[in-house]
Write a structure and sequence with these properties.
single chain, 5-stranded antiparallel beta sheet, DNA polymerase, domain 1, alpha+beta, 332 residues
């Protein structure tokens, strides 16, 4: 096997000792391998982070592994392993996010989560659209008690401010705090080592998500070739049906053909209904599905149609795949 890349990593050990490791990318007859070998392993085989023929998957595994070991304290002899920016420099916003996660008031955070849950239920929206966990961590750590302070929390924009500021401030107003606004003091008080480790953890999570999506993509393509249904995919991948369809739409845009899958899912939908959906897409456009739903089904609910609205949206998405493919074919 030919070594095409090799780098040494080091981290402080006990006393004055320095622990070292080597990371290599090897190739043999089109098969790539990413290997990690820590020093003093007494002949043990290296850890295999990846082995396969896909260059894209190999690079993802390579970056994910680097982020993980650098978060554990290893530093490469040759720098710039993940990007060209110095990870330790960061940005003021990321420092606030890190401080929020490390210093969140758990009691206040739980109170904010309960408020978010109730608000999401009342508005029939996903909880993260009300406020992300990261935002709630920061609010619980910095405890804003005025509108002017709350608007300084990263991500808390004018729309959220207008809709929820009064309710959030009613919760934070009952809590005490040891810090003050504005928040520039965070740059001096945030522990540098903890911040660096946090930054690498964000990278590790990012690359892990990319790897998972790539694996799911391969699974979807293989399953579709085997005639697997959307319900089976939902079970096998443990992903919501809507997310699966969104991924399939993205893959269609990348050039993959899902016609056999679409035909199978629409097999029991009457031709007349499919034509009505097609005509509505042509009339009102294919960017937003709600106007199409209203044109074809009126303003449906479960009792009126005998089907869930989510199920109707699935039909619209599937026919939109065909509709967009036909437009692309005509353009070519």
């Amino acid at each position: 096997m030919q070594i095409v890349f090799l780098n040494t990593f080091e981290k402080p050990g006990e006393g004055q000792r320095v622990e070292s490791a080597q990371l290599s990318i090897c190739e043999r007859q089109g098969v790539w391998a990413v290997l990690w070998m820590e020093g003093d392993r007494n002949g043990e085989a290296p850890q295999t982070w990846f082995e396969g023929t896909s260059w894209e998957e190999m690079i993802m595994a390579f970056r994910h592994g680097i982020a993980k070991v650098m978060g554990e304290g290893y530093a490469p002899i040759i720098d710039g392993m993940l990007d060209d920016r110095r990870t330790g420099a960061g940005s003021f916003q990321s420092m606030l996010q890190c401080y929020g996660e490390l210093h969140a008031d758990q009691e206040l955070f739980q109170a904010l989560r309960e408020w978010r849950r109730a608000k999401a239920t009342a508005e029939k929206r996903s909880a993260y659209l009300i406020a992300t966990n990261r935002m709630l961590w920061m609010i619980s750590a910095f405890v804003p008690q005025t509108a002017e302070e709350l608007i300084q929390i990263p991500g808390w924009g004018t729309a959220k401010h207008a809709a929820y500021a009064e309710e959030v401030l009613a919760i934070t107003g009952q809590a005490s705090r040891m810090t003050e606004f504005p928040l520039q003091w965070v740059t001096e008080r945030l522990d540098t080592a903890a911040y660096t480790q946090w930054l690498f953890k964000q990278k590790e999570t990012k690359f892990k998500i990319q790897m998972d999506k790539q694996q799911a993509k391969k699974h979807i393509l293989k399953a579709v070739q085997q005639g697997v249904s959307l319900s089976q995919l939902e079970t096998e991948l443990a992903l919501p049906r809507r997310e699966l369809l969104e991924r399939i739409e993205q893959m269609e845009q990348e050039g993959y053909d899902f016609e056999s899958f679409v035909a199978g899912e629409l097999a029991e939908v009457p031709d007349e209904e499919q034509q009505l959906i097609w005509d509505a897409l042509a009339a009102v456009g294919d960017k937003y599905l709600k106007p199409v739903l209203h044109q074809v089904y009126g303003v449906p609910d479960d009792t009126q149609t005998g089907k869930s609205v989510d199920h109707l949206y699935e039909r619209l998405r599937l026919i939109r795949l065909r509709f967009r493919r036909s437009k692309t074919s005509k353009a070519v």
